[in-house]
């Protein structure tokens, strides 16, 4: 495993002084760098010690372990919620006081505003404040505005830090649990579910921590505001507060329904991601079977169900935001209407105090309080899902140390030379990256690397699960003699194998049948009557297999106790250096996994255009814009109406100056009717805008997801070799999750706030034109500052996305190699790598938080300057303004400072979310392989003969890679049964890749006189049946794996199972073909998986059948019966069989012999065995004299 972060830069925050921390000066160098060039991972600062994954994970794990023990003692179910609270309550509560102080400063602002307006109402009144007092109130109000802005961003920054820590800690625990899952537990979860836990579920912690405190701050503020309103206007304020209570009760019902929807949505998301994960894992099989369209239909159906739930929950949340937009107007309307019914008089200052107090409530009680309920509902569902995962069964972690006398048992220094020589074919030698599941390696290379890894462990006991199955006879003998017998001669070694020629070197032989030992002994004691080994010896094995509970699986134990056989091997075998066969594997793909690409700077307009284009037709977008304008016009007409009323004009209210300068309402029906009409219009337009915008963006997410899926499946196989599964799943999980869940609501919130903000500025300029003087330069400064900020912020967000992918890749690869990790006791090492990946991601996430804080501080200064200019400027011009104008401008200026901060925060969030959209759009534009269908289609009965012709065929897996097939020119006859053999990496499987055009071959390949490049890929691939070397199975029933898309009858399925000798096994299962297979079919043996895939290939009944090492893990007797069945059942078909097991193809009519990408020979097997210089003859002799004699005799019988 390569280092996660090649270079660590110290975090300047650790040494920053108070002023630098407050104004975030320590980030200035990063912004300068980001403006000049694209930021790279090495530019990020190291994660702070208190934010490290290991520290956070172990801390929370300790609390969880204590909670589990307490729960066992109390006979109850453990609560992950309790463990989280006990771990974080102290620090979280301290920062929660900032939320209270923040909202406290917001509540007092309307009071000071009212005092200032009182000065303008009547400066001669004995009850009015003096000009000096007005300036004093203006100063205090300005200080409150600045203090609120500082507290607001400090609170959100630290809450997000807490959320990050909780997320990182829970991810650590999830991965730790993954490494400990038992076999039964693995059947209860899937890769898709775990990926979803690590992407979407833990993401809820980042969100819930920001709003959780508003569960108590909101009600407390509502009580304080009610008291202040009572002091201002008396009991009529209760009418407005009643509206608030009704809305909150309504929203609480909505959030209960939302919680249920979210729980169902996550289950659907798990299913979709799991299916996509299996598609990516089995992409070669899917492409060769031409199943892309069928899987696109399957995922599209799953996605449609998921989107239906997402759309419903998003509509509920959209209604909430629409209410937020209009609720203060509704509350004001009801309050003033009740005030009129009670015949209470009200001053202009009181009008604007009431309005601003309702505005303060709107943010906290209508936005943040319901948001807290929503986020808590989501978090509770996620915590429950995570808790259920953490409570799954674990394997024992007990690793007893065997006694040792302190002496070195074996020295493996010379072993290095052997493996280094074997790595010469790789460009970067042992530092070559091999990608997920070793995609860049051939089967033989994987086997040898696994064996090398085992030997390097220098263990006392070795359990070798058939490491010789995927290599040719020469390499197999070399590995057995030089590695197993010689290097491990002083070790206890248990070898599971079908290679019977090696049994004579064993000290003990165990014969297993149906999961039971039927006989044990030494080689000289066999065969005995009634033992399957006798029958197996008659077939005299060949050279390959792996663990299969089928009959006759032998087990060897401890060569070291048989000194004579080991000594004979040592004396007769040359040294490792000399004995290593020349191994020039030309077949390995050598597609080095590429770094994840990313754009530069701000998200371009093209991405926004693509998103809306995917969501709706252009005229719907135009209609959406018009609705936004209409909603805003209706919203501000209410303010104009109210201002005119406060000024005493003939509009909603008329001010009649009399004693006490009170306001009376001469014609309430007309004014209240107009005001209510505007209020209803505002509400309807707001709801229509919310619903339509959410529909467009959610529909856009669905469309782009489907386009990305189709683009992925149309990409060449090389794309999957170069991109780890975690990187691809990241786009389908986290990025798609952002577009489904976060982007629509964040974008809606931003649009509402932006239009509101611009409308506020427009109204202020309309009332007092000179306000344009400070607005214009401050707007220019803001615009330039935003560009400067987003240039760096966009890069950091992309780094956050790209550093997230290795977390998922490491998880996926760990799940695939879980048993190997445990076998080598490498859990701690893999946990450390996971923590390192998390720390790298935390570096990017930390910069996301701090760079936004940097921006927010500077916005605070702009807002404070703006408000101070408006406030003191209005006071200077107070004599020229009436109370309505003065109150409207100051109240709007105060509102502007509130909404400006939130608008900018949401604009940055939109930019952040649009990076996810950008990444999804990027995957919709991938390079594609040839079209699936051309205009020209071959005849329906093509190919009717199955003749193959190759002319000067050269083939590479990559454009710049080495040739793996060189100048192939050959023809095959109709209905031929052809064997294809050669050393590991000789180019055998590459011949299949060329036939199926997994990469485009150079030269000509014809099937029944039709060039394969002249027809579509699906027309080609559907006409050939293939059984690939790697058994690919999907989660689901046995029946669904045989016939995923219900194309065959029940009888056909059972016949196929009978042909591959699986019928009896499956009939003995309780559910027969409806037996559920767990992920990757891991509840079957490797041999059974291969046979199931072979049955799937046989079902297609094409004229051309290609079998690529598909029986390598099956015992020789079963393999022989299967091959006999294939020759009988497919007598009218052309059959190509690739194998290392020479007994499998010795009965073939013709044999191709490959070496280093070149067709060395193509002849009848018996003819080649007559030539001692022939490569095939040498390969047969490698099996030993007895086996070679048997094979020669069989070839002779076929020849005669």
UniProtKB/TrEMBL annotation:
One of its GO terms (molecular function) is ABC-type transporter activity. The keyword NADP does not apply. Residues 98-358, 619-912 form the ABC transmembrane type-1 domain. Residues 567-590 are annotated as: Disordered. Pfam families: ABC_membrane (PF00664), ABC_tran (PF00005). GO terms for cellular component: membrane. Residues 567-576 have a biased composition (Low complexity). Residues 302-539, 948-1181 form the ABC transporter domain. InterPro entries: AAA+_ATPase, ABC1_TM_dom, ABC1_TM_sf, ABC_transporter-like_ATP-bd, ABC_transporter-like_CS, ABC_transporter_C-like, ABCC4_TMD1, P-loop_NTPase. It is found in: Membrane. The chain crosses the membrane at residues 134-157, 211-231, 237-258, 314-338, 350-373, 616-637, 675-698, 743-764, 770-789, 855-878, 884-904. Gene3D superfamilies: ABC transporter type 1, transmembrane domain, P-loop containing nucleotide triphosphate hydrolases. Keywords: ATP-binding, Membrane, Nucleotide-binding, Transmembrane, Transmembrane helix, Transport. PANTHER family: ATP-BINDING CASSETTE SUB-FAMILY C, ATP-BINDING CASSETTE SUB-FAMILY C MEMBER 4. This is Multidrug resistance-associated protein 4-like. It comes from Bos taurus. The gene is LOC100337076.
């Amino acid at each position: 495993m390569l280092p996660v972060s090649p270079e660590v830069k110290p975090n300047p925050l650790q040494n920053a002084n108070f002023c630098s921390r407050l104004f975030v000066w320590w980030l200035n160098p990063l912004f300068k760098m980001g403006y000049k060039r694209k930021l790279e991972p090495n530019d990020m600062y190291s994660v702070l010690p208190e934010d490290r994954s290991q520290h956070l994970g172990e801390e929370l794990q300790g609390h969880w372990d204590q909670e589990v023990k307490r729960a066992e003692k109390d006979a109850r179910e453990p609560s992950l919620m309790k463990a989280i609270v006990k771990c974080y309550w102290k620090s979280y509560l301290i920062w929660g006081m900032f939320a209270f102080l923040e909202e406290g400063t917001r509540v007092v602002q309307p009071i000071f505003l009212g005092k200032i307006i009182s000065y303008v109402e009547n400066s001669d009144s004995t009850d009015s404040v003096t000009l000096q007092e007005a300036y004093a109130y203006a100063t205090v109000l300005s200080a409150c505005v600045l203090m609120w802005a500082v507290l607001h961003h400090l609170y959100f920054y630290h809450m997000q830090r807490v959320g990050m820590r909780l997320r990182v800690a829970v991810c650590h625990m999830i991965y730790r649990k993954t490494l400990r899952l038992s076999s039964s537990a693995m059947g209860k979860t899937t890769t898709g579910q775990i990926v979803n836990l690590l992407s979407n579920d833990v993401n809820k912690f980042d969100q819930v921590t920001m709003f959780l405190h508003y569960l108590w701050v909101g009600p407390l503020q509502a009580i304080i505001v009610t008291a202040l309103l009572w002091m201002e206007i008396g009991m009529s304020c209760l009418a407005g507060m009643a509206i608030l209570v009704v809305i909150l009760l309504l929203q609480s019902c909505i959030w209960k329904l939302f919680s249920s929807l979210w729980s169902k949505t996550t289950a659907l998301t798990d299913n979709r991601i799991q299916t996509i994960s299996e598609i990516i894992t089995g992409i070669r099989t899917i492409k060769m079977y031409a199943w892309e369209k069928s899987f696109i239909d399957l995922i599209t159906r799953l996605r449609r169900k998921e989107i239906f739930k997402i759309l419903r929950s998003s509509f509920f949340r959209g209604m909430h935001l629409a209410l937020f937009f209009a609720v203060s107007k509704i509350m004001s309307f009801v309050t003033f209407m009740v005030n009129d019914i009670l015949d209470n008089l009200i001053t202009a200052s009181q009008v604007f105090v009431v309005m601003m107090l309702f505005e303060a409530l709107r943010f906290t009680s209508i936005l943040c309080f319901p948001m807290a309920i929503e986020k808590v509902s989501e978090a509770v569902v996620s915590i429950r899902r995570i808790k259920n995962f953490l409570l799954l069964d674990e394997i024992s972690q007990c690793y007893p140390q065997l006694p040792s006398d302190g002496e070195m048992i074996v020295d493996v220094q010379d072993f290095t030379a052997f493996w280094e020589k074997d790595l010469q074919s790789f460009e970067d030698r042992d530092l070559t990256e091999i990608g997920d599941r070793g995609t860049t390696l051939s089967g033989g290379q994987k086997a040898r690397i696994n064996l090398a890894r085992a030997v390097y462990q220098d263990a006392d006991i070795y359990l070798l699960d058939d490491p010789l199955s995927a290599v040719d006879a020469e390499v197999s003998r070399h590995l057995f003699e030089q590695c197993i017998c010689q290097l491990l001669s002083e070790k206890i070694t248990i070898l599971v194998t079908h290679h019977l020629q090696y049994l004579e070197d064993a000290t003990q032989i165990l014969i297993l049948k149906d999961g039971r030992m039927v006989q044990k002994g030494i080689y000289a004691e066999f065969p005995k009557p009634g033992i399957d080994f006798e029958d197996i010896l008659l077939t005299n094995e060949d050279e390959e297999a792996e663990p299969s509970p089928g009959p006759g699986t032998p087990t060897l134990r401890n060569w070291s106790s048989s000194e004579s056989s080991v000594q004979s091997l040592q004396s007769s075998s040359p040294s490792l250096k000399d004995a290593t066969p020349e191994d020039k594997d030309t077949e390995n793909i050598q597609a080095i996994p590429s770094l994840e690409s990313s754009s530069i700077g701000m998200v371009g307009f093209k991405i926004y255009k693509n998103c809306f284009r995917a969501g709706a037709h252009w005229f719907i977008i135009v209609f959406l814009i018009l609705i936004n304008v209409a909603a805003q016009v209706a919203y501000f007409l209410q303010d104009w109406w109210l201002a005119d009323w406060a000024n005493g004009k003939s509009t909603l209210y008329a001010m009649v100056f009399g004693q006490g300068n009170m306001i009376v309402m001469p014609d309430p029906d007309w004014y209240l009717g107009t005001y209510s009409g505007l209020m209803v219009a505002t509400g309807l337009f707001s709801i229509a805008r919310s619903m339509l915008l959410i529909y467009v963006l959610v529909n856009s997410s669905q469309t782009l997801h489907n386009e990305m899926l189709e683009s992925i499946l149309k990409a060449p196989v090389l794309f999957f070799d170069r991109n780890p599964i975690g990187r691809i799943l990241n786009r389908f999980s986290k990025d798609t999750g952002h577009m489904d869940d976060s982007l629509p609501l964040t974008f809606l919130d931003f649009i509402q706030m932006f239009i509101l903000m611009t409308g506020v500025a427009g109204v202020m300029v309309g009332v007092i034109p000179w306000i344009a003087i400070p607005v214009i330069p401050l707007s220019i400064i803001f615009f330039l500052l935003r560009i400067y900020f987003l240039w760096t912020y966009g890069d950091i967000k992309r780094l956050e996305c790209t550093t997230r992918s290795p977390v998922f890749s490491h998880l996926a690869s760990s799940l695939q190699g879980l048993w190997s990790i445990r076998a080598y006791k490498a859990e701690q090492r893999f946990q450390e790598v996971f923590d390192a990946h998390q720390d790298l991601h935390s570096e990017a996430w930390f910069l996301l938080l701090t760079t936004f804080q940097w921006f927010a501080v500077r916005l605070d200064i702009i807002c404070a300057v703006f408000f101070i200019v408006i406030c003191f400027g209005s006071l200077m011009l107070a004599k020229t303004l009436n109370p309505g104008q003065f109150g409207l401008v100051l109240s709007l200026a105060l509102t502007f400072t509130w909404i400006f901060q939130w608008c900018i925060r949401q604009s940055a969030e939109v930019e952040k979310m649009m990076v996810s959209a950008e990444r999804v759009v990027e995957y919709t534009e991938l390079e594609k392989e040839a079209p699936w269908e051309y205009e020209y289609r071959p005849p329906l009965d093509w190919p009717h003969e199955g003749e193959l012709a190759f002319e000067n065929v050269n083939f590479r897996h990559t454009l710049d890679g080495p040739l793996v097939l060189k100048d192939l020119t050959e023809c095959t006859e109709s209905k031929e049964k052809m064997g294809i053999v050669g050393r590991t990496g000789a180019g055998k499987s590459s011949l299949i890749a060329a036939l199926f055009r997994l990469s485009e071959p150079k030269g000509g390949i014809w099937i029944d006189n039709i060039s394969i490049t002249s027809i579509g890929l699906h027309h080609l691939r559907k006409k050939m049946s293939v059984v690939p070397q790697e058994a690919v199975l999907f989660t689901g029933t046995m029946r669904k794996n045989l016939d995923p898309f219900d194309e065959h009858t029940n009888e056909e399925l059972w016949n196929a199972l009978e042909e591959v000798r699986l019928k009896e096994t499956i009939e003995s299962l309780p559910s027969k073909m409806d037996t559920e297979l767990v992920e990757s079919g891991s509840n079957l043996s490797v041999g059974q998986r291969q046979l199931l895939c072979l049955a799937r290939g046989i079902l297609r009944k094409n004229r051309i059948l290609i079998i690529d090492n598909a029986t390598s893990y099956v015992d020789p007797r079963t393999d022989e019966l299967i091959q006999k069945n294939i020759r009988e059942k497919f007598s009218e078909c052309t059959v190509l069989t690739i194998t290392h097991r020479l007994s499998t193809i010795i009965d073939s009519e013709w044999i191709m012999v490959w070496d280093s990408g070149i067709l060395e020979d193509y002849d009848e097997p018996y003819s080649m065995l007559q030539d001692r210089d022939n490569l095939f003859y040498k390969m047969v002799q490698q099996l030993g004299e007895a086996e070679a004699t048997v094979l020669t005799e069989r070839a002779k019988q076929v020849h005669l």
